[in-house]
Design goal:
The chain has 254 residues and is an alpha/beta fold. The protein is built from eleven helices and eight strands. The strands form two sheets. The chain has a four-stranded parallel beta sheet, with helices on both faces. The longest helix is centred in the middle third of the chain and has 13 residues.
Amino acid sequence: MVSKISDFTPQMDRGIAWRARIGLIVLATDHTLEFEFRSLIRMPGVSFYVSRIANTPLITPDSLEAMGALIGDQAGVLLPGESLDVIAYGCTSASIVMGEEFVFNQIQAVCPESEVTTPITAAFAAFRALGVSRIGVLTPYPNEINQLMIDYIGHNGFRIEAFGSFNMSDDNQVARISTHSIGQALLEMGRDDGIEALFLSCTNLRSLEVIREAEEILGMPVTSSNHAMAWHTLRLAGVDEPIEGAGRLFQHPL
């Protein structure tokens, strides 16, 4: 039996995220996004917090749109009672199918004080920061999603000079596309003289291993859904310093 319980008065500080708190809504089927965010967001005082949103591995417009009603609830379980500087919704194709404004509204209805981004929002911000408008795009998606992406990017003022796809409809299989295959596809697409930058779309595609090498070989910026969204969340949170070894984008402010 304990004879005495001592009471202590703690000294409080601002916690591990004293500089920036980032919320991240990740698909239940995503294997890659958290891993790549951990590789990029490592600076002192910056942390990200994750919730998982229910989805099916099948990649169709209907399955992607079905997540819309769940986004607000998943934002609400990110550090309840605390404010977040930025909340990122981690699905490129769903953000296109539903529209960025819909995603923003769902999150800000629950967390009105937070900045919001998505992978496609971040990609557009990255293109502007890099000063490029003629893009090569590589996706894992089936044709129906690819056509929606081509239209969406074009309507936002960017010109797709080359487009490639692995034509897959199972998100679990997307995570298993080898980095060798991704790198080879990028190098082939990057030979097009009209391209100013390359974009790998899909948070489940492994991209960090190939971005730096592709940039060195091709002599142009390369970014991806995860890469651009990590950069954008940091910049929106006021974390502006360059990150060495993370590719050209991370040398740029917002």
